[in-house]
Write a structure and sequence with these properties.
- With 386 residues, the protein is α+β, with helices and mostly antiparallel strands.
- The chain folds into three domains: 124 residues, Acyl-CoA dehydrogenase/oxidase, N-terminal domain (Butyryl-Coa Dehydrogenase, subunit A, domain 1); 110 residues, Butyryl-CoA Dehydrogenase, subunit A, domain 2; 143 residues, Butyryl-CoA Dehydrogenase, subunit A, domain 3.
- The chain contains twelve helices and nine strands.
- The strands form three sheets. The chain has a four-stranded antiparallel sheet with strand order 2-3-7-6, with no helix packed on it.
- Strand 8 and strand 9 form a beta hairpin.
- It binds flavin-adenine dinucleotide (FAD).
Length: 386
């Protein structure tokens, strides 16, 4: 890591966290990098990888040990997500699995739901996914069409979801559905579904994406799926919208954490390339344009790093508010877009070749401005607080 990019460590940092980041970095570099081409072609990692990552303690690191997790905090998770983004351009749905789904179950799940899923998610025996987005409703969550209508002692679910991360391998799904379509936000519920035993449920194709090629993003279909009242997260219908709003800040910070790590990686790759590459009889790094561009990239990365580290500190004290989280997601992903584009330019034609990590970083980075709430939605949320 180039010291000037990171600056002083934040107050919450520790030697233990540093050791975790280093060991995760070694693992992802050794186990993910050699498989990237094969996984990109397949559109997914091997299923066994989830258990391998679980055995290393890199799944559910922020879930308490009594639920089978690592017993750490958001800081431990941040080290793992950062290490993955720095060591490889393999996209792997751990942020959705450990950072989002496991935390919904921890925050709202009944003891039975927690015991059933959290230990298996920590080991990688069960993969988690969250399904909000539909073909007709993404940003406007209240417009979803998936219904879970009361029928006897349970519910019947009909609808479809798209762009779902971990769609191919998901064993447990957090599904957003309307249980009372006339009740607006109060009519939305979250179901925690075991996908192995679900007649009427079907997975669609794995979608071919611009980037993040190794991540199984896909469609899910529900055709008369029967669910019980015990399948509602926490057991009480109508709480889904409030639960989503409470957890979205965390999700947005996780995207910011990913963005800043990708930005730092892009700069490190580019500095190394500019040092080696000869142009007009001198190193590319010696040209003033290269030096100025890299100085701008480094300054942007450092300011984003400082802001994101501060937001992590707030989250660790349970003081992260939705507006700060939206600012972090919006700003980090926009700066990532700018930085990775400038870095790619300094690679010339090599930057356009997918065998170069900078090209894959560029493609992987684009979606950070879209998912987890498009940046325009982030700006709406920020503006409302002004
Ligand atoms: C790779 C990938 C992985 C994903 N993983 C998941 C997942 O695991 N689970 C899940 O549920 N979803 C997932 N998504 C979906 C993602 O969260 C949505 O794509 C995103 O929320 C935007 O919704 P949309 O695509 O329907 O776009 P739309 O809602 O149609 O918005 C399109 C554009 O319109 C503009 N816009 C929309 N509303 C406003 C507004 N109010 N003001 C100003 N401009 C606006 C924005 O520019 C926005 O980008 C994933 C998407 C991708 C691409």
């Amino acid at each position: 890591m180039i010291a000037a990019l990171r600056g002083d460590a934040p107050a919450w940092h520790s030697h233990e966290l540093e050791a975790l980041r280093e060991s995760a970095h070694r693992f992802f570099a050794a186990e993910f990098v050699p498989n990237e081409e094969r996984w990109s072609t397949a559109g997914c990692v091997d299923r066994e990888v989830w258990r391998q990552v679980g055995a290393m303690g890199f799944l559910c690191a922020g879930i308490p040990a009594e639920h089978g997790g690592g017993g750490g905090s958001l800081a431990h998770e941040a080290m793992i997500y950062e290490a993955a983004a720095k060591a490889t351009t393999v996209a792997f749905g751990n942020i959705v699995h450990s950072g989002i789904v496991a935390h919904y179950i921890l925050a709202y799940g009944t003891p039975t739901q927690q015991q059933r899923w959290l230990p298996r998610m920590a080991s990688g025996d069960a993969v988690g996914a969250v399904a909000m987005t539909e073909p007709g409703a993404g940003s406007d969550l209240k417009a979803i069409g998936t219904h879970a209508i009361r029928d006897g002692d349970g519910y019947v679910i009909n609808g479809s979801k798209t762009f779902i991360t971990n769609a191919l391998y998901a064993d447990v799904l957090l599904l957003v559905a309307k249980t009372d379509p006339a009740a607006g936000a109060k009519g939305i519920s979250l179901f925690l579904l075991d996908l192995a035993e679900l007649p009427g449920f079907r997975r669609g194709r794995v979608l071919d994406k611009l980037g993040q090629k190794t991540q199984d993003t896909g469609e899910l279909f529900f055709d008369g799926v029967r669910a019980s009242t015990q399948d509602i997260l926490g057991g009480t219908p109508g709480c889904g919208f409030a639960q989503l709003m409470a957890q979205l800040a965390r999700e947005r910070l996780l995207i910011a954490i990913e963005a800043v790590a990708m930005m730092e990686r892009a700069i490190e790759l580019t500095v190394a390339h500019a040092r080696d590459r000869q142009v007009f009889g001198q190193r590319l790094l010696e040209l003033q344009n290269t030096r100025f561009k890299l100085a701008e990239c480094a300054t942007r990365a450092r300011t984003v790093r400082t802001f994101v580290d501060q937001a992590i500190g707030l989250a660790l004290q349970e003081r992260l508010d939705p507006v700060t989280a939206s600012m972090a997601k919006y700003w980090a992903s926009e700066q990532l877009g700018w930085v990775v584009d400038e870095c790619l330019q300094l690679f010339g034609g090599y930057g356009y070749m997918t065998e170069y990590p900078i090209a894959r970083l560029y493609a992987n980075a684009r979606v950070l401005r879209i998912y987890g709430g498009a940046n325009e939605i982030m700006k709406e949320l920020i503006a409302r607080a002004l």
